[in-house]
Structures are given as C-alpha cells and as structure tokens.
C-alpha cells in the first residue's frame, strides 16, 4: 500500500512517519512538506533509522510537494495538518484515496456546533456527509467502507467510551 503523510515535518507527521515505517502493510511512504520539499525525509527525524529507507523509493528518500504526491496515486492519505486547513489541502485526494484526517475538519457534521467550537463554518461542508467519525470501537463497520475518516481526538475518545458516560459495553456516541 502507498501512504501519503501530509504535514510530515510537524509533530503528528513525524509520529506517523515512525508508525508507517514499521507497518507491514505499507510498502511506500510518500512524505509531503510544503516548506521543506526536496530535503531528505530522514532530516525530519534523525532517529527514524534505516528501516524507512526502503519505503521511500518513490520519492527517492526526499520530502515531496503536494502535486508530486497526488501524481503518485496513493492508496491512503494521512493528514497531520492544522484544523480548518486540512480539508482544503486533502481535496485532490477525495474519491481517489482513503483520507484519514487527524484534524477536526470532519469530526463535527453539525455546522452550527462546528462554528461554535472553531469560530467558523466547516471548511468543506460538502464532504461532511460522506465522512465517518473514526472511533473504531463504535463505528468499525462504517470505517471499513469509508473514504474520509475523521480521526477522533483523545478527549472525545475518552468521553465516548468511558463507563461513566453510560457505555459499560464500550459503545459510545459521536458528536
């Protein structure tokens, strides 16, 4: 599987780089950076080790631009980008790759609630109906079929699964 990491040079991107380097189902990693493209991917995290080198063949070991990543036709895209920007940058991949967004851009489908939380309307509301809240303990079946997965944050995960929230069987509720 070919996996793109958007925002590779940020903290979330660096963690994704490490996780995907060891993932048995990921054959190619395509690390994207708008600020450091062309630089060696190993420069993002010198502790990543040699294990990742074989998975960076398509990009010749370097960070690439968004346009280059699109052309490589990835199977999955991990977006480690800021809230309110992620959805816009992910648009070229919609309908072509599975997108796992780690920002809040697809977590809240209610436009008013989203605006209350983030001070503006959702950045790409037209894609909200097809996104799935990525809490696998509750929405596992929907996630398996989804093209846009809104990865939940730690606080929503905790509150949705905690027994005190009325979820003794591990069944929660999404926003």
Description:
With 175 residues, the chain is α/β, with parallel strands linked by helices. The protein has one domain (2-165): Rossmann fold. It is 27% helix and 14% strand. The chain is built from 6 helices and 6 strands; from the N terminus they run E-H-E-H-E-H-E-H-E-H-E-H. It has helices spanning 11-21, 66-71, 86-90, 111-118, 136-145, 154-161; strands spanning 2-6, 28-32, 76-79, 98-101, 131-133, 148-150. It has a 6-stranded parallel sheet. The chain is globular. It starts with a strand and ends in a 14-residue tail after the last helix. The relative contact order is 0.13. The model has no long low-confidence stretch (mean pLDDT 88).
């Amino acid at each position: 599987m070919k996996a793109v990491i958007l925002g590779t040079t940020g903290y979330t991107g660096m963690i994704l780089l490490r996780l995907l380097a060891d993932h048995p189902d990921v054959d190619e990693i395509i690390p994207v950076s708008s600020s450091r493209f062309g630089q060696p991917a190993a420069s993002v995290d010198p502790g990543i080790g040699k294990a990742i080198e074989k998975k960076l063949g398509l990009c010749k070991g370097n960070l690439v631009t968004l346009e280059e990543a699109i052309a490589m036709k990835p199977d999955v895209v991990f977006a480690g980008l800021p809230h309110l920007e992620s959805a816009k940058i992910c648009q070229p991949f919609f309908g072509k790759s599975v997108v796992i967004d780690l920002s809040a851009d697809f977590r809240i489908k209610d436009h008013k609630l989203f605006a209350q939380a983030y001070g503006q309307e959702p950045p790409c509301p037209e894609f909200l109906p097809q996104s799935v809240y990525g809490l696998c303990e509750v929405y596992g079946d929907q996630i398996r079929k989804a093209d846009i997965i809104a990865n939940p944050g730690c606080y929503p995960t905790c509150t949705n699964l905690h027994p005190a929230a009325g979820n003794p069987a591990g069944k929660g509720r999404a926003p």
